[in-house]
Design brief:
Shape: elongated
Structural class: alpha/beta
Strand order of the largest sheet: 2-1-3-4-6-5
CATH class: Alpha Beta
Number of strands: 6
Number of helices: 9
Helix content: 25-40%
CATH topology: Rossmann fold
Length: 280
């Protein structure tokens, strides 16, 4: 009997996400995180000593990565946001895929990584940044405490974020070689929790969880959330802190030119001998 592969859980309402992103673009997007990611991506590409004939920017909001990619590729394309997460890219046609601040709202990240792996040529590179780790931990904690106190229960308010180990394992699972992950922690200060939430709205990053509360939040709960946020996460000057962890991931499609691990038993000197030599 053939077993059916497990279906990825559907955490996010990606159709609603598309609406929120379009609204943010229309109203004047807040781009300080995207600008930081674009600058960092340009620096990371400069450290790669090769050119890329064909590149694609996958789902990055706006045109934030256009300049970073333009100087390193012969041709590049922007792939617009797709609620279905399907990539209609022919196999083995790209040398480089980049993405910034989009993967955190993907329901089937293993599936998307597998599609990217298929679209890349041998020795092709995936370089992406996504929100992860402890992003918005202060807002999450403040909402949970306020709802428990004012309403006797807690509803999903802030999306779950993947950590470095999980993302590194997913790269390997998708078949990428030389996987690397690291995190850039950005702490932003605001006058209030409501100012933070206004920025999130203009990033297109407000709550799109399918299990979110669909009715309006009580005014008392919102006010208590802001009060708890200030009590727990304010600096001496009264301004609150908000954490954003930008998680970077990169991996290469295997190629014979890449550095390979040594075969077991191929070392010419034992670790024991090396340690004894250092002790002399």
């Amino acid at each position: 009997m053939v077993s059916t592969p497990p279906t990825a859980p559907v955490l996010f309402d990606r159709a609603l996400l598309g609406v929120r992103l379009a609204r943010a673009e229309r109203d004047g997007a807040v781009t300080f995180l995207l600008d930081r990611a674009a600058e960092d991506l340009a620096d990371r590409l400069l450290a790669v000593s090769r050119s890329f004939a064909a590149a694609a920017d996958l789902w990055t909001p706006g045109a934030g990565l256009t300049e970073a990619v333009r100087g390193r590729s012969g041709s590049h394309q922007r792939i617009a946001f797709d609620p279905s997460e399907a990539l209609s890219l022919p196999a083995g046609t790209l040398d480089l895929v980049v993405s910034a601040l989009a993967f955190q709202f993907v329901n089937d990240l293993p599936g998307v990584l597998a599609q990217i792996r298929r679209a890349l040529k041998p020795d092709g590179l995936l370089l992406a940044a996504m929100l992860g780790g402890d992003t918005l931990t202060e807002l999450r904690q403040s909402f949970a405490a306020a709802e428990a106190e004012c309403e006797g229960g807690v509803s999903p308010r802030v999306a779950p974020f993947a950590d470095l180990r999980d993302i590194g394992a997913l790269l390997q699972r998708a078949g990428f070689a030389l996987p690397v992950t690291d995190v850039d922690r950005v702490v932003v200060r605001y006058d209030s929790a409501f100012a933070l939430m206004a920025d999130l709205r203009r990033m297109g990053a407000t709550n799109v969880l399918r299990e979110r509360r669909h009715g309006p939040t009580r005014r008392a709960t919102m006010l208590r959330m802001a009060e708890l946020y200030r009590e727990r996460f304010a600096d001496p000057d009264g301004r609150i802190r908000a954490t954003f962890d930008i998680v970077w991931l990169s991996g290469w499609v295997p190629h014979e030119s890449q550095q390979q691990p040594l075969k077991p038993g191929s070392a010419k000197a034992s670790l024991e001998a090396a340690v004894k030599g250092m002790q002399k």
